[in-house]
């Protein structure tokens, strides 16, 4: 992959996926989305309670409820999205495998991406799992827009590797072959993501080079950004590689979009846990290590065609 000339912003979400070989990520189910909360247990393996291998590692409150509440922006196919009223995708399948080891149900709760960490701080969620890039800013609670402390940071259990891509209308690339070609162009992104921050950094670079700034339109969901591109309101969309590949493959039967340039800024996705919940963090880490070891993790990635994003070692706060 050609290295990006754009510096990595410190605090954004990616939604970012692994390396060029993930192009097959698009060959999946048809996309969908929704706003309702999943019914408890939807899409998860049967709870085993105290008989589960790692149940005893969980905090007492979760042992009592046997439920882990997960905050997620459920409109980011194929990572997490709605199909036939159920939450499906890479994250829900990994969460279900973790739940089996921990002996609990996982309950996905929908929210906009930029509110998920706040939901962790307020105890609305136990975890946030939403293609969230593990960054130092998030670990330390730094607002990427202001560079100032915005609240308590979070810990991450890293579970996938990802990168950022650009796509345009099919057959109408506007001469865009990478980030350096976006000066003076219009781009749509999901608010609060790595794509959002990269676009802002690239726009600053354009102006430093005495070129026109990038016009950036930020939306609550990636689906809204795609809709804007279809309507011709912007020249391109940027999102995480597996999501971009999925959109290119499936939207309009593959006739709506085309990918341009190389993916950039490969980084780990992390399951976010509040800093004061180290026991849950360590239980999730142990569960992830077990499913990597027993093959369940590899099966999930193979199902979704994203094996190239696999981690080899489970790390806490491995993002930089």
From TrEMBL:
InterPro entries: Solute-binding_3/MltF_N (IPR001638)
Residue ranges of every copy of the Solute-binding protein family 3/N-terminal domain listed in the record: 67-308
Superkingdom of origin organism: Bacteria
Species for this entry: Streptomyces mashuensis
Region Disordered: start-end pairs: 35-58
Signal peptide boundaries: none
Name of this chain's protein: Solute-binding protein family 3/N-terminal domain-containing protein
Cross-referenced Pfam families: SBP_bac_3
Alphabetic keyword roster: Signal
SMART domains per the UniProt record, alphabetical: PBPb
């Amino acid at each position: 992959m050609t290295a990006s000339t754009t510096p990595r912003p410190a605090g954004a979400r990616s939604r970012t996926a692994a390396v060029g070989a993930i192009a097959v990520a698009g060959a999946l189910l048809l996309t969908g989305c929704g706003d309702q909360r999943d019914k408890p247990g939807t899409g998860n393996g049967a709870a085993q309670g105290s008989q589960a291998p790692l149940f005893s590692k969980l905090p007492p409150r979760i042992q009592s409820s046997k439920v882990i509440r997960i905050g997620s922006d459920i409109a980011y196919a194929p990572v997490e999205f709605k199909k036939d009223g159920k939450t499906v995708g890479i994250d829900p399948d990994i969460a279900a495998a973790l739940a089996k080891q921990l002996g609990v149900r996982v309950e996905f709760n929908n929210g906009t991406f930029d509110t998920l960490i706040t939901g962790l701080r307020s105890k609305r969620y136990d975890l946030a799992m939403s293609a969230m890039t593990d960054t130092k800013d998030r670990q330390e609670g730094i607002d990427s827009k202001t560079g100032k402390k915005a609240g308590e940071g979070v810990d991450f259990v890293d579970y996938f590797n990802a990168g950022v891509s650009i796509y345009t209308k099919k057959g109408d690339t506007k001469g865009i072959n990478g980030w350096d070609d976006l000066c003076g162009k219009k781009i749509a992104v999901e608010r609060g993501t790595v794509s959002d921050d990269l676009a802002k950094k690239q726009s600053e670079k354009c102006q430093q080079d005495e070129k026109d700034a990038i016009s950036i339109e930020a939306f609550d969901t990636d689906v809204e950004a795609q809709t804007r591109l279809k309507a011709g309101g912007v020249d391109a969309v940027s999102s995480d590689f597996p999501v971009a590949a999925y959109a290119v493959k499936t939207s309009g039967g593959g006739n709506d979009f085309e990918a341009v340039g190389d993916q950039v800024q490969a980084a780990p996705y992390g399951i976010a846990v509040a800093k004061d919940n180290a026991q849950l963090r360590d239980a999730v880490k142990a569960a992830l290590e077990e499913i990597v070891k027993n093959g369940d993790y590899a099966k999930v990635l193979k199902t979704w065609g994203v094996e190239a994003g696999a981690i080899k070692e489970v790390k806490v706060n491995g993002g930089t």
